[in-house]
Amino acid sequence: MRQKRRPTPYRPTESSETVEETSESTKEVTCPECGGHLAHDTEHGETLCESCGLVVDEDEIDHGPEWRAFDAGERDSKSRVGAPTTNMMHDKGLSTNIGWQNRDAYGNSLSSRQREKMQRLRTWDERFRTRDSKERNLKQALGEIERMGSALGLPKNVRETASVIYRRALAEDLLPGRSIEGVATACVYAAARQANVPRTLDDVASVSRVDSMEFKRTYRYVVRELKLEVAPPDPENYIAQFASDLDVSDELEERAHDLLRHAKEAGIHSGKSPVGLAGAALYAAGLLVNERLTQGAVSDVTKVSEVTIRNRYQELLDHEQTRNGQPGQALAN
Fold it and tell me: Is the pTM of this model over 0.85?
């Protein structure tokens, strides 16, 4: 059954344009029911009759730009071709790229003389794309950020943020005396922290080309010099990842969230490792729902010592029992 709208006179708006009849067009330009004139509503992606309101076509694809322009100068400044610019490439994706295939537009192989010519063009194109040391530095660093972001499964917006942080560090001359890989790793971790994406220091260090101590030292330096606003990590952000690795039930995972929420309300989490608290909450939740986990298994997943887990889970249980009006140490024993 065809969809109809209330047959009111259709008045084309700023976002609607009338479908004009042309001899070259093969599309239907008259209403199949009343023979009225059809109009295209770009705002709703529909083609409808101006007379009876019949919706002839819907869910159409808008091939126009996503921006609006109000004068010729604004239109010229916003118009573009190709992919959108991105901070994840040292030239923001605006330069040329000569493919490695030695074939012409028809798929035919190039002659030996043409292959030599294309190789020379590739060489010069590469030289022009990285004409100075800063551009070569940026190209190497952004490649490292992309590699680490892919290995850690970071979304595109986090990698974009890490690229922006590295550009700021390069512009403010923070790199002398530090390795490109170290600063790139620090930028990846800072971007993940800013986006509240749960990645631990050990996770990032495991995919980095620098040792853990250099990475942590560089991270503190970059955050201090660039005055980055990085909030302390929330222990609850790590629960889902650790629960998946430990293969625990949904009930245990939800109870771990409850323990951490209650601990944060009382301020118990202040000054303590969020990863350690997340691991301890999972272990304590296992005791409460009779789904026991070993401290060794939790330690292996969270990369936190068993001593830390024992100390933290006891604090969580003591607070939970006090909150419920029970004597301390009851559940732990």
Answer: no
Q: Which amino acid is at 239?
A: I
6-11 long-range contacts (CB < 8 A, ≥24 apart) are 6/53, 7/51, 7/52, 7/53, 8/53, 9/50, 10/39, 10/48, 10/49, 10/50, 10/51, 10/53
Which pLDDT tens digit goes with each residue over 261-312?
988 888 888 888 889 999 999 999 998 898 888 999 999 998 889 998 988 8
Contacts of 16 (CB under 8 A, 6+ apart): 39, 40, 41, 42, 43
* DSSP-derived 3-state class of residue 64: coil
**Structural domains of the chain sorted by starting position, each given as residue range(s) with its CATH number in brackets:** 1-79 (2.20.25.10), 133-226 (1.10.472.10), 235-323 (1.10.472.10)
Residue 7's identity, in one-letter code, is P
